[in-house]
Amino acid sequence: MTKVWVLQHANCETLGSIAEALEATGIRHEYVRAFKGEPVPKEMGDAAGVIVMGGPMGVYEKNAYPFLTQETRLIEKALHAGKPVLGICLGSQLLAATLGAAVTKGERKEIGWYPVTVTDACKSDALWKGIESPFTAFHWHGDIFDLPQGAVSLASSALTKFQAIRYGQNAYGFLFHMEITPTIIREMVETFDGELREAKVDGAEILRKAPDYLPRLQAIGSLVFQRWASLVKRSH
Fold first, then answer.
1. In the chain, pLDDT over 90 holds for what percent of residues?
2. Is-catalytic flag, 12?
3. Per the structure, how many domains does the chain have?
4. In 3D, which of 52, 60, 57, 1 has the Cα closest to residue 31?
5. I need a surface site. Which of 42, 57, 164, 203 has the fewest CB within 10 A?
6. Given 9, 139, 141, 177, which residue is catalytic?
7. Residue 236 known to be catalytic
8. What is the pLDDT of residues 180-236, one digit of tens each?
9. Which one of 13, 20, 71, 179 is the catalytic residue?
10. For residue 7, which of 44, 49, 43, 51 has the smallest C-alpha distance?
11. 177: annotated active-site residue
């Protein structure tokens, strides 16, 4: 059975709805919880792709989190082998950094529900074609990245120029979250409450607004993730 590695960086930041897309396509996933000391694979091995999830650490904190260097090497090997890569939030920053782009602190943290506008490149993109823009996505990041050389910009927000990128035909990075479920949102608000206070963001307001925006966001995410899973299946 086709398998993908899933690099996880926080208990609350799981695959969410991505797991459903993988299961529907006949792909199994194997979590690698490096933040708990689990070893990052040195090679892709029999894995057909890699998914890199979000987390509270920064790409530039490799001294504090040595596993980030190991994850970068695995992403590099997946890219070199032409195997599909999917980066979510921190994962998108790691993908951008692996491709040589700068990852830096943004003007301010973008946390909560904010509109995302897709670029014209999405009209012919394998994952994004046919998706109406703009839509309101869930954001939780303080860092941003430049567009890597050779990559294509797929989406932006008012605060962040590069919200989604593609490199080649099957490597994607999404700074915003489409994989979220009500449980994941609640757990993120609870887990990172200190960050919310520091950024002066109302966690209760995030939860109140979820029913307004989550259904459409999940519908978009479901389609995008199913399409990515199909890339994995075809490439395998």
1. 98
2. no
3. 1
4. 52
5. 42
6. 177
7. no
8. 999 999 999 999 999 999 999 999 999 999 999 999 999 999 999 999 999 998 887
9. 179
10. 51
11. yes
